[in-house]
Structure formats: structure tokens, C-alpha cells
Amino acid sequence: MNTTFCRSSVLATLGAQSASSANRVKIALSALLLPLALASLLLQPARATTTLADQPVFYDDLTVWEHLEYIARLHGTDDWEQQAVDLVDMVGLMDRVDDLPTTFSRGLKQKAALTMAFVRPFDVMLIDEPFVGLDRLGKEALLELLTLAHGDGATLVVATHELSSVKESSRLIALSSGVVTYDGDPAEADLTALTEGVRQDHD
Q1: 10 Å Cβ neighbour count for 141?
Q2: Domain ranges for the chain
Q3: pLDDT tens digit string along 20-47?
Q4: Most buried residue, 129, 133, 159, 170, by most Cβ within 10 Å?
């Protein structure tokens, strides 16, 4: 797939039911990193690219707060403590910051991963099925964080089956068996047809 990505855009990738989100993220990654993020990697390595994975991985012996401190300091984030507090409060994990995220449920792990993804600076974020496992509070927090990141100039690439969130994007690319079936304005797309692998042409 050859495509170009505009800076400070929100791109949603939607696959037919047979297309895995992991494959869609890999496609987006390969298409995105060279034309868009390479300059950031060379010029601003600490701010370049971050990911929010469908199945986040944590250090076994670090608490949520220790993860946040480690990630923030690794990327040279100033005044990270208040930002970390705000993120933890936003997702409802304030009373679990001293716990090990490896012991959490799927939903709490996803919330913890949200705080860690957004506590550091970035230019590009690759996001794989971010709504899976989140409750209403978590989904609202995620949408707010994505809106804020976009407003700050970040480019967001989201692989999702959450059709309600696709309309919030500025561009939609749909895939079926490795073929692009739609590339354009999400508002003009027949999302149900696209999830069934039906190609949709547009002006």
C-alpha cells in the first residue's frame, strides 16, 4: 500500500471482518514511518513515534507510578508529575498507582497503558484497538486525550473495529485482504459495507 500522511491528522484504519488489527497497524506503520516519521526520528528522537498496543506489556516489578516516572524521564519530559497525576485521575486509576499493572484486569491494563502512552511527548502515535476493554470513563478519557494530542499537532493512526469512533477521524482507510477498499472522508463511507469487504468508490 502506497499512501501519504499529512501531519497533524487523525487516520482511522478499518478492516473487513477477516482482517486483523495487527496487520492493519503493520501496514500503517510501514507506510507511515518512512515518509512521515523518519525526519522526526533523526531530528527529534525523543518525540518521534509512540504506540498504544491492543495488548500492552508492562515490567513485572514496576508499579503504575514507577512506569510513568520511567517513561517520562526516559523521554526528557519536564514537570511530568502533574501530568501523570492528571492522566491517572482522568482514567480513574488514582487509587491503583502503587499497584503492579501486571496484576490488573484487561480494562485496567488498557487504562494504565493510556496514561503511559500520553505521559511522554510524541509526533506520531500508532494505536491498535484502543477501545477494547475500556468502560465508559475510559473511552471518554481516550477520546479527550486523542483530541488534545491532535490539537497539539500530533498525527494519530488508529486501527479499530469501533465504528462509532471512525467518524471522529479526518481520514479513513479501509482494507480487505490487503487491498484498499476505501480511502477518504469517514463521513462519506458506508462503514457496514466496508467491514464486509465491499469496495466503495468516492469522488
Answers
A1: 21
A2: 10-58+106-114+121-195
A3: 555 554 555 444 444 444 444 444 454 5
A4: 159
List, in order, residues 6 or more apart from 152 with CB less than 8 Å away: none
Quick check: 115 pLDDT over 60? yes
Answering whether pTM is above 0.85, one says no
The more confidently predicted of residues 9 and 41 is 9
- How wide is the angle at C-alpha 151 spanned by C-alphas 76 and 51, nearest 5°? 50
C-alpha cell at 198: 465491499
- Placement of cell 506503520 in the chain: 29
Query: Which one, of 122, 163, 131, lies nearest residue 37 by Cα?
Result: 122
What is the residue whose three cell numbers read 510513568? 68
Helix (H) or strand (E) holding 158: strand 155-159
Summarised one tens digit per residue, pLDDT across range 59-106 is: 999 999 999 999 999 988 888 999 999 999 999 999 999 999 999 999
Contacts of 156 (CB under 8 A, 6+ apart): 9, 10, 11, 124, 125, 127, 146, 149, 150
The CA distance from 77 to 121, in Å, is 7
pLDDT of residue 171: 81
Grid coordinates standing for 11? 487516520
How is residue 130 annotated by DSSP?
A: T
CATH superfamily of 10-58+106-114+121-195: P-loop containing nucleotide triphosphate hydrolases (3.40.50.300)
